[in-house]
């Protein structure tokens, strides 16, 4: 697998990055996704929103995660992106899945204001709440909470623990360190009441021919992970974890 950030010879356009990562998007989706990145980078000059300021990083890290997530949401769901920051994954998800009601929660007021401007400019019908996501759960109900780069598995279990009647499942986009997060959460006993599943796993970086052949970016099915399950086959991969109440998605 190649790390695109180390190769200065690669052409850095949206189209070439999509090609390199083997992603195909129809123009009606590609256009707003391109525009979102351009707007985000414009706001990034005033406020620290993202370090992914090349097309390769945007496509290879942000879009890759959002496309994986988009496959895992059922029609007509109500989704909350908790800790939206720059809008990932909520904004691309709203573009990719217009049938889904997406809301964004961001606790830092200045970032929430920028998110508001982004969704307005992109003509998306996406409410933005300048609030801690878990506080919203006191007044609203969602089917799925999605989140990336906001907190450890253990933190999430604690944040949402009093609010499980306000949503059905959590989908967390995680890098390879999720294995240590799982060990920490197990150690403190916070996973006892929950089922943890790896809904998707995928290679980080540009997929190789072998990745394509072996189906490395594959749905993992919906097996609940047992305490002693060997997950070494997922080493170095990105994953989407689903946390739900025991037996809820049996
Ligand atoms: C590292 S950024 C990640 C942004 C984006 N999700 C991404 O993947 O690039 C984390 C963001 O979550 C926000 N945040 C942290 N805890 C939060 C909470 N409990 N509710 C809402 N926002 C939160 C922070 O203010 C920050 O903007």
TrEMBL record:
Gene3D superfamilies xref list: Vaccinia Virus protein VP39 (3.40.50.150)
UniProt region (Disordered), positions on chain: 210-232
Major place of residence: cytoplasm
GO cellular component: cytosol
EC number: 2.1.1.-
Positions that bind S-adenosyl-L-methionine: 83, 133-134, 148
Family according to the record: Belongs to the methyltransferase superfamily. RNA methyltransferase RsmG family.
PANTHER family linked: S-ADENOSYL-L-METHIONINE-DEPENDENT METHYLTRANSFERASES SUPERFAMILY PROTEIN (PTHR31760:SF0)
The name this protein goes by in its record: Ribosomal RNA small subunit methyltransferase G
Naturally occurring in which organism (per UniProt): Aporhodopirellula rubra
Gene label: rsmG
């Amino acid at each position: 697998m190649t790390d695109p950030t180390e190769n200065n010879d690669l052409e850095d356009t949206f189209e070439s990055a999509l090609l390199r990562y083997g992603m195909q998007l129809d123009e009606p989706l590609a256009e707003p996704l391109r525009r979102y990145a351009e707007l985000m980078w414009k706001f990034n000059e005033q406020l620290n929103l993202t370090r992914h300021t090349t097309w390769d990083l945007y496509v290879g890290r942000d879009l890759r995660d959002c496309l994986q997530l988009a496959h895992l949401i059922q029609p007509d769901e109500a989704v909350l992106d908790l800790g939206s920051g720059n809008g990932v994954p909520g904004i691309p998800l709203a573009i990719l899945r217009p049938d889904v009601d997406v809301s964004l929660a961001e606790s830092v007021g200045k970032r929430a204001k920028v998110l508001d401007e982004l969704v307005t400019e992109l003509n998306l019908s996406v409410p933005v709440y300048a609030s801690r996501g878990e506080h919203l759960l006191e007044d609203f109900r969602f089917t799925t909470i999605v989140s990336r780069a906001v907190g450890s598995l253990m933190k999430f279990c604690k944040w949402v623990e009093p609010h499980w009647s306000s949503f059905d499942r959590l989908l967390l986009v995680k890098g390879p360190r999720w294995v240590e997060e799982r060990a920490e959460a197990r150690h403190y006993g916070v996973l006892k009441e929950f089922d943890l599943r790896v809904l998707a796993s995928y290679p980080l970086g540009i997929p190789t021919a072998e990745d394509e052949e072996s189906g490395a970016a594959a749905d993992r099915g919906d097996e609940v992970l047992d305490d002693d399950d060997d997950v070494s086959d997922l080493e170095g991969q990105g994953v989407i974890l689903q946390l739900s109440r025991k037996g809820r998605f049996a």
